[in-house]
Design goal:
It holds the Pfam family Phosphonate-bd. Residues 1-27 form the signal peptide. This is PhnD/SsuA/transferrin family substrate-binding protein. It is built from ten helices and 14 strands. By secondary structure, the chain is of the alpha/beta class. It has two domains: 3-112 and 210-268, 3-Layer(aba) Sandwich (D-Maltodextrin-Binding Protein, domain 2); 116-203, Periplasmic binding protein-like II (D-Maltodextrin-Binding Protein, domain 2), CATH 3.40.190. The strands form three sheets. Strands 1, 2, 3, 4, 5, 13 and 14 form a seven-stranded mixed sheet that branches. Helix 5 links the parallel strand 8 and strand 9 (162-165). The radius of gyration is 20 Å and the shape is elongated. The protein starts with a strand and ends in a 23-residue tail after the last strand.
């Protein structure tokens, strides 16, 4: 929701997060849209990466926008469910959930698509993904989208695989190579680039998902929606976003289509508090 930035800033300051006043706060009673993103970086790094773009969007739109980084996913998801964030940059499953539950609309996204693959050792006798029930599987920690898309294949919560959380795609491969698990959940593009010797594909669905996306609350009017979209796709906007785009190994944003997120929010159903109202 739109609210006083200083009230949120004060609570964040109490958490000892070093955020500077470079975000350009004008007055204590000024209302701001709150921008946040998935906590894949420290709060300090998040502010460093996103401040140039957020300040630019504030300037061209005439609407104050303030960055509010989350320290971890617990804080991030709690704030999200409570509608604390107005503009958010994160994965398509969160975007789909916000569209259904909070009335968000997608603005732009990173180019490309996300597809999951499940890989097993070449010697594995497992031929059906359902046979991984009760078996150890190397994956990223939930609510990572790849992990949630994998778990969607197991609708009985007592017959799910045992997920071994690791960090980084190299970590997934090393986890499986070390014999710690029966399978690993990867992204298709990493499977295609890696040395596949000793591994084979178990599961490679056709379904793809849109890349990381910026969405916005329905509390803003269409004019502001259009201003922000245009700014994000402009050359100047891309220049301001250069640091974060480099982080995600992309050169630009592309326009987002609402249809691409249809049903994607259901991936979060296993996470407490994210069950969609049906």
């Amino acid at each position: 929701m739109i609210r006083s930035f200083f009230s949120r800033w004060f609570s964040l300051a109490l958490l000892s997060v070093a955020v500077t006043v470079s975000q350009g706060v004008q007055a204590e009673d000024e209302e701001a849209l709150v921008f946040s993103t998935a906590p894949t970086h420290s709060p300090e790094k998040t502010v460093q990466l996103y401040t140039p773009l957020v300040n630019y969007l504030s300037e061209v739109s005439g609407q104050k926008i303030a960055i509010e980084p989350a320290r971890n996913y617990l804080e991030y998801t709690n704030n999200m469910r409570e509608g604390e964030y107005d503009i958010v940059f994160d994965g398509p499953h969160f975007v789909g959930w916000r569209m259904e539950m909070l009335g968000h609309a997608p603005l732009v996204r990173l180019p490309g698509a996300i597809r999951i693959v499940v890989v097993v050792p070449e010697s594995s006798s497992v031929t059906d993904i359902k046979k991984l029930s009760g078996k150890k599987v190397c994956s990223f920690a939930s609510p990572n989208m790849l992990t949630m898309a994998f778990l969607q294949q197991f609708d009985n919560p007592v017959r799910q695989p045992v997920m071994l959380s690791v960090k980084g795609f190299k970590g997934l491969v090393e986890c499986l190579k070390a014999g710690k698990a029966e399978a690993a959940v990867l992204r298709d593009k990493h499977w295609e680039k890696m040395d596949q010797a000793g591994f084979k594909l178990l599961y490679a669905p056709e379904r793809s998902y849109p890349e990381r996306t910026i969405s916005i609350t329905d509390e803003v009017d269409e004019e502001l929606h259009e201003k922000l979209t245009t700014a994000l796709l402009s050359e100047e906007g891309l220049a301001k976003a250069a640091g974060l785009l480099e982080t995600f190994k992309r050169k630009n944003f592309v326009a987002a289509s609402e249809d691409d997120y249809d049903g994607v929010g259901e991936l979060l159903d296993p996470i407490w508090g994210f069950q969609l109202e049906r």
